[in-house]
Amino acid sequence: MIKLIGILIIIVGFILKLDTLAVVLIAGIVTGLVAGVPFPKIVEILGKAFVDNRYMSIFIISLPVIGILERYGLRERAAYVIGKTKAATVGKVTALYLVLRTLAAMFGLRLGGHVQFIRPLILPMAEGAAMNRYGEIKSEDHERIKGLEAAVENYGNFFGQNAFVAAGGVLLIVGVLKELNYTVEALDIAKASIPIALIIMVVGTLQFFYYDRKFDQKYGIRARAKKENR
């Protein structure tokens, strides 16, 4: 049981809100030492894990780029452009992104992300569509729109990625099932995931259009007034 001490270290570290990377690193080293693994071997294992998964940290490179784009008005321009599209609504913008995000995940394309796409681009577009349609909206509805845009990224990524045979989730599922003596291949998991990805596109789109109706009912008088003035 002492070999599970790494889990305790991680729990305590997270409760105390210590540096995440340091906590995980210490937990790994302590677990290795308790298990009788030589320290040089522990360092070798950690180094190999970092090299094998270094692509996971590539997104960090995009953060300064996104920051510079926001500094020079990316959010404002996105809202302005979508605001000029009279037919645009929160639901249509969000549903369109859901389809694109899910299809991209199904083909293994690294399109999307809360930091890279949602915050600087999709959210301002949805808010711009709402303000163009209804004028000023209440702060509570701004929060609802934020929630919808956060949800659409999760929908598309989570349900779309397993339709790609080389996705990490697919390989994990295959590995677990084979350990349980089930004969299964990555292609089988990907095929089984395609209907789920299609279903989430339909269900998500219905959800986003439902919020269009709610917003229309709530701000309906204002929307009709704007149309009459045009």
Automatic annotation (TrEMBL):
Pfam families linked to this entry: DUF969
Keyword field contains Transmembrane: yes
Keyword flag Transmembrane: yes
Top-rank taxon, per record: Bacteria
Transmembrane domains' residue ranges: 7-35, 55-74, 158-177, 189-210
Alphabetical keyword list: Membrane, Transmembrane, Transmembrane helix
UniProt name for this protein: Putative membrane protein
